[in-house]
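ok so I'm stuck.
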Amino acid sequence: MHTSLDGFVAGPNGEMNFITVNETMFDFIATMTAEADTALYGRVTYEMMQGYWPTAGDKPNASKHDIEHSNWYNNVSKVVLSETMHETGLHNTKVIGDHLSENINKLKNQEGKNILIFGSPSASQSLLNEGLIDEFWLFVNPIILGKGMPLFKDITGTTKLNLIESKTFPGGVIALHYGKL
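replied:
not stuck anymore, here's the structure
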């Protein structure tokens, strides 16, 4: 998840124009998606992704990243945490609206690769409160926003973490990989 140095994942109105991305970062993210066969989203992020990624690789000016990520997105199993969405008409997508801990633990115990959650701060906070997140990748952008949507809001307990690795990207973004102790 991208965050500002002061811990905001979006500005006060949901703006994310502070996020720095580049080809080096896209290539790095591709190594992460190659190790995942399930993408988990909150409803808002899923709708945003669904509005772009299914056809992003088909556009005449599609970048290498757009082609690769679009292909991955179209083939990966998607899980959406939402109390208002329904699975009817959704392709390769499961909706979880209740019994969060039970349903996510079923997913985690299935055979397969990793489960990645992209963005989705509210969904991430719910998962964190249930103790369902095993690792974090935080992409800290070199900016102080001062206000906005916090990365961690209404967290109900303490989660101790261990820094596994860090990586610096052009433009000053630092990726921090933490695992739960």
